[in-house]
Amino acid sequence: MNFKIGVDGGGTKTDFILVDERGDTIARRNSGGCNPSLIGSEASQALINGQLNSLVDEGRSRDSETLITHTLFCMAGSRPFWREFGATLTDCGEVQTFDDSVPVLELATNGKPGLVLHAGTGSFVAARDTSGGTHYAGGLGWRFGDPASAYDLGRHAIGRAILELQGWAEPSEVSAMICQATGLKDSDSVTRHYYNDDLAHTTIAAVAPRVTEIAANGDPIAQEIVANSVRKLAEMARDVVARVMPEATNESLIVGLSGAIPQTPIAREAIASVLGSGCEWISVNDAPIEGVRRLLARL
Predict the structure, then answer these.
(1) Is the terminal CB of the chain with fewer CB neighbours within 10 Å at N or C?
(2) How many CA atoms are closer than 13 Å to the CA of 184, on its beta-carbon side?
(3) Which one, of 10, 93, 43, 84, lies nearest residue 291 by Cα?
(4) Who's near 296: CB < 8 A, 6+ residues apart?
(5) β-sheet bridge partners, residue 111
(6) Distance between CA 285 and CA 275 in Å, rounded?
(7) Pair type for strands 2-9 and 67-75
(8) Residue 217, phi-psi category: left (phi > 0), alpha (psi -120 to 50), beta (remainder)
(9) Is the dihedral of CA 212, 217, 222, 225 positive or negative?
(10) Strand-strand pairing, 114-119 and 254-258
């Protein structure tokens, strides 16, 4: 019996699947993050090798003549690193490597031309053109700007709150929310709180769910923060479409929305204001490993 292996590797977790010739999932494995930029190349290789060996053994326990025909890596971190790693593997069949945006794109477009806007801890735009080529934009990380990401919403909300506490902006639910979150009531204390936090990027990103919540409850300042941040991601997507799918019209364009932030009504309205309301909107809610499984089914 022939099997295929799929891997979705990120900074915080790594998912593995073993599928049969029909594309049905036979076994799953998961572990911590495998990005070599975060845990080092040796640790990344050891983590992946251990789980690959486990899946190969799983296949052979079902059929001693098991053959792994394909292994598909969709990974965060350096693609050259993963290509070089894949070239060292044995018993894994044909090895292909992609970045970790491709499974999300697959979930949005099902192999058709289109794009996906993803925003979570970070953000990116991924697209598939009419010839099947894939393209990636954004993903710059919190230091350099990921529009519509949790960090971007958080930093804008905190900045607005500090101005409100200084008395230079009209009070809103945003400053009340930040004061409640920190237990502080003046601008200097709030500023010190976030600047002195060694994990400030995580703490700032954690503000985002409250920003979207008070925006949904009608606070106009929170709504403006969400809309402005998401609109920048949509503008990036519009530029990608113009470059790689210039023939696409609003009515023919598949647009996937991945992550909690882009799927909020305020965000969807902001995206539609840039890309056009006539697009075919797809909410992406399945885990990326399901996108890997679908990709394997086409190999």
Answers:
(1) N
(2) 15
(3) 10
(4) 4, 6, 17, 19, 23, 70, 72
(5) none
(6) 21
(7) parallel
(8) alpha
(9) positive
(10) parallel
Q: In what order do the strands lie in the sheet with 134-138?
A: 134-138, 123-128, 114-119, 254-258, 280-284
Position 134, amino acid: T
Task: Average pLDDT across each block of 10 residues of the chain; the chain has 299 residues. List them in order.
Answer: 93 92 93 89 95 93 89 90 93 92 96 95 93 92 89 97 98 97 96 86 93 98 98 98 90 93 97 95 96 93
20 touches 26 (CB < 8 A): yes
CATH of 101-286, one of 1.10.3720.10, 1.10.10.10, 3.30.420.40, 3.30.9.10: 3.30.420.40
- Answer yes or no: same fold for 2-99 and 101-286: yes
CATH architecture for the domain at 2-99: 2-Layer Sandwich (3.30)
Task: Give the three-state DSSP class for 12.
Answer: coil
Spatial contact of 288 and 15, defined as CB atoms under 8 Å apart: yes
